[in-house]
Design a protein that fits this description.
Elements lengths: L1 H24 L8 E9 L4 E10 L2 E3 L1 E10 L5 E9 L4 E3 L7 E10 L11 E6 L6 E3 L8 H4 L12 H4 L11 E2 L4 E3 L2 E3 L3 E2 L4 E4 L13 E4 L4 E12 L19 E3 L4 E15 L6 E15 L2 E2 L2
Parallel strand pairs: 18-20
Antiparallel strand pairs: 1-2, 2-3, 2-6, 4-5, 4-7, 7-8, 9-14, 10-13, 11-12, 12-17, 14-15, 15-16, 16-18, 18-19
Length: 303
Amino acid sequence: MRKWSWLVVALVLMTGGSSAALAKGQSPTAAHPTCVVKQININPAGHVTVRGGCSLRGKSILSRPHYSYTSVDTDKYSCGLTTGMVVKGSKFVLRPKGAAAASGNVRYLPQGKYRRLASRAKPFQATMAGSGDLQCGKPVNLPPSEVLCDRSQWPLFGWPPAVVANCGQPVRSGLAFSDLTTLVDGVLTAGHVVSPSGRCAFGPWNHPDFDQPGLRLLCSDDVGAEVVLAYGLIADSQGNFCPDSLQPTYNGQRKMDIPKTWKGTLYIVAAVDSYAHWSTTHDRIGRESQTMMFKLQGSQEAC
């Protein structure tokens, strides 16, 4: 019995000693900042103002907004993800300029020794003015050539080989059509174009070789392009072709007005010519084309 008594006493002393030591050396649980996004305001130009911040024990501490978002152009093509951006103050601008919409989130991050702590994000959806000059998207899962170049109902005599060369076949490292040429409300427009960089814009920028700088496409990886309505024909309602080809009024035109009064059939070839190192050597990579046929719904013969 004596041995068991000594064992019990020893265990009690050990347990009590450990508890006493822990209590003596233990500090209160460290307080963590609370970070809140109270309000997000976004205007049509993409200017964002946020309200909120971080506090510790009821007092404000230094903090900065952190945001990430994905934007799209007017054709709903993704302009890519912008993430990991921390800004000073309470204002920032959504990029790229000309985007039509963006979705993402904002959070406040405490600075100093608390900067690595996570904080709750507030999501946002933004509708912006948008610009048809912005062309976003990458050449992934492009439409097949039989879609971009459906000539099953085209004239039997064919087209100039140089015009339809590489029809529906993207140029390696160049730009590519990702959508069809459209005729909407009397305006004929070459199809949407995508690039390896994922983000391009039509002008304004200058190059000494061209007199229409606002109609050339420049991408963020310094690949340039000319997107043109290259060639076209119009047939009347009886299938007879008009004597003059429908030619754009100047080189580089990507849009053209078609009278709404015309009836008949419009055949059009659009092309995108790609150039590497546009800002310096202006090296031509090659061309891709696409074709389209439209039934005109007016009441007057086009010829």
